[in-house]
Amino acid sequence: MTELLSVSNLRLYYRTTKGVVKAVDDVSFNINRGETLAIVGESGCGKSSLSKAIIRLLPRNVHTYEGKVLLNGTDLMSMDEETFRKEVRWRKISMVFQGALNALNPVLKVGYQVAEPLIIHMGIKEKEAIERAKEILVKLGLSEEFAERYPFELSGGMKQRAVIAMALITSPDLIILDEPTSALDVITQANIMNMLKELKKSREQTFIFITHDISVASELADKVATMYAGQIVEIAPADTFYEEPLHPYTQKLMKSVPTLRRDKTLESIPGAPPNLIDPPSGCRFHPRCERAMDICRKEDPPIFERGHSVKCWLYR
Amino acid sequence: MVLLKVEKLKKWFPMKKGIFGKTLYVRAVENVSFELERREAVSLVGESGSGKTTLGKTILRLYEPTDGNIFFDGKDITRLSNKELMWYRRQTGIVQQDPYGSLAPHFTIYKILEEPLIIHGVSKEERREKIYSILNEVRLPPEEFAFKYPHMLSGGQLQRVAIARAMILDPKLIIADEPVSMLDASVRVEILNLFAELQRRHDMSVIYITHDLSTTRYFSEKIFIMYAGHIVERAPTKEILNNPLHPYTRALFNAIPDPDPENRLRMREVPPGEPPSLVNPPPGCRFKPRCPIATSKCDEEPPEYEVFSGHFVKCWYPK
């Protein structure tokens, strides 16, 4: 398998009135072509910021934006905004934003909106682009006539398909899915996941799948990363990630997730995630960690390779 | 002992539309009957638009029932006037989904909790006592939290305030509408455990409304499954989790993933399509258009069969 995306030491800090928020702090990972990496974490852990740092859609109050991002070997961070917009965003990397299904333009037909990336980013003529949009809609289980409809005529699940179609239409190398099903009902979610699994197989599509839900992550992920307080604390192949998580935070997270098919005792994680302006010294999880040692309070752990990449002193 | 008895309850919302100005109705709840025992916790499970919130609010008389009857403690409360309802309000409480939206932002926590006590004429000393004791029970130390404002609290803490408010008049019944769906997984468990503990300690009955079947086993003795305004299956929790019978319940089960890396290798068997419009629902069984085993018989509304003791299924082919 060839490497598609390689991210190293990525940082994204925001300036706020209360101080500098370290939303993404020294994050590194890579993804092979055709692979899906799920990034799981609780709200405020920086997972959406990470995706925005990759597709480079940044708010005005950026304080620090640095690191290395290689797509197919091309260095994206050294590109100026104009080149990035023309050559990368939407053409090579597209994104399904959280809640995007509710952000469709109510006065434009769905077909046009799905076709828009082709018209704007690839310079394809509207008529041809809409034809392509129809093809994609059909592939995603909607019929051609949906192109002629307006968003209000569609259900949540249909709108989500349309939004995914939009991300897919330019045949990008990488699609970032940010909570693509969290607003949907479970049966609709299952239908969307089936569709994404199909895309993974038929097009060898590469995904970054961002979710707060460890169960849903397992629907698509070949690799899973746990994010905590702006950092990736564990990353591993799905099989061992679920069977034997190593980082104490991942372990706790697993124990807090209810399961339908078997009974287990649920545990909560005491305390709350730290604020990202002044994160705890050493390991950021140490104030909530039962197994914290002296060194955890003092020194930031490096990443240890134990089959999993795990940022924890226990695996020294 | 039965606390709440619901008989053929119906709630339709009028919608002024249609040709010749004919009034159409959203048939949100139809023909719902069940009993709730004292101290019993029941989960009402359904997808969005299934009518579960409407059912909850109609039971609390926050909506006027269109038809049917509601008995509480043996008393028919279906058509009580607003004045008579004061008594019922004291017996019942509600916890809503969004704690950010359901607590007044310009009130301190103390004031939020005091409001229902003032309305029900509780004296000043007693109010203080009650507020402090309930805050301790939901594990928000009053010295620290009583005079804070909602925006100073986290989502989990706010939901504890919402629970405290629902409980402050010692109700016999609480309806909790998706109380944890906006919270992170780690906080969710804490709130559910706390709620279960309070329910037992205060001998309350609880209807827990949720779309998330996997949290129900930790909380309730019975599960009711709702689809498009009907309760299609109800049974003791363990029974339904081991032996779901209604085709819709089975579809729901198939759709929900547990954390399992094998998931990525298999497709889920789920019905295509979406729930029907409640303005113009299919006649008979409302799941028929999506049901893999439907026949022409399903154009008639199926009765509720008691397949095993306490396990009811509203389906012509319940096995």
Task: Explain the overall architecture.
The complex is a heterodimer of chains A (316) and B (319). Chain A is an alpha/beta fold and 316 residues long. Chain A has two domains: 234 residues, P-loop containing nucleotide triphosphate hydrolases (Rossmann fold); 70 residues. Chain A has ten helices and twelve strands. In chain A, a hairpin with a 1-residue loop joins strand 11 and strand 12. In chain A, helix 3 crosses helix 4 and helix 3 packs parallel to helix 5. Chain A starts with a strand and ends in a 6-residue tail after the last strand. The model of chain B has no long low-confidence stretch (mean pLDDT 93). In chain B, helix 4 crosses helix 5, helix 5 packs across helix 7 and helix 7 packs parallel to helix 8. An eight-stranded mixed sheet of chain B has the order 6-7-8-3-9-10-12-11. Chain B has a four-stranded antiparallel sheet with strand order 2-1-4-5. In chain B, 31% of the residues lie in helices and 25% in strands. Chain B is of the alpha/beta class and 319 residues long. At the A-B interface, helix 6, helix 7, helix 8 and helix 9 of A face helix 8, helix 9 and helix 11 of B.
- Number of structurally distinct domains of chain A: 2
Task: Count every beta strand of chain B, where a strand is a DSSP E run of 2 or more residues.
Answer: 12
DSSP, total strands of chain A: 12
Please give the alpha-carbon distance between the first and last residues of chain B.
31 Å
Structural class of chain B: alpha/beta
Helix/strand structural class of chain A:
alpha/beta
Listing every helix as H and every strand as E from the N terminus to the C terminus, the arrangement of chain B reads EEEHEEHEHHHHHEHEHEEHHEE
By CATH, the topology of the largest domain in chain A is: Rossmann fold
Largest sheet of chain B: 8 strands, mixed
The helix content of chain B, as a percent range, equals 25-40%
**Shape of chain B from CA axes?**
globular
SSE ordering of chain A: EEEHEEHEHHHEHEHEEHHHEE
Looking at this structure, what is the CATH superfamily of the largest domain in chain A?
Answer: P-loop containing nucleotide triphosphate hydrolases
- Biggest sheet overview of chain A: 8 strands, mixed
Distance between the termini of chain A: 30 Å
Instruction: List low-confidence stretches of chain B.
Output: none
Strand composition percent of chain A: 25-35%
CATH top level assignment of the largest domain in chain A: Alpha Beta
